[in-house]
Amino acid sequence: MNDLIDNTNIINLTQSKYAEKLLRSVLQQCPMSLKPELGDTLTILDYDLDRVYLKKGKESNSDADDDFDIRTWDVYDTGEGLNKMVHIEWTLFKRVGDHGVPITEGYTSFLIADC
User: Fold this and answer.
1) pTM assigned to the model
2) How many domains does the chain have?
3) N or C end of the chain, less CB within 10 A?
4) What domain range includes position 13?
5) What is the Cα Rg of the chain in Å?
């Protein structure tokens, strides 16, 4: 991953390594205009079976924060034991009012053992 993504301040309120791994993969695939800027903090607020809830701002509790969520559409695993991988199709949404506006989408996979 590039240095900007690797050095992005991520606060994971869920302690889920899966949610953080997915977020880093989504950031890696985002267009440059959507990548976090220096000083941005990304906070993983919560997650459930089909989405990860995020907040982006200069501080973890800023009033000027933007709300996002990553919605997962097709999640499946392959392999066994230490070679078991999870594959995920996702869409990044920006929260606007009570709904989301799709921004970008992609596909990622990673070893479950890394989570």
Assistant:
1) 0.77
2) 1
3) N
4) 3-114
5) 14
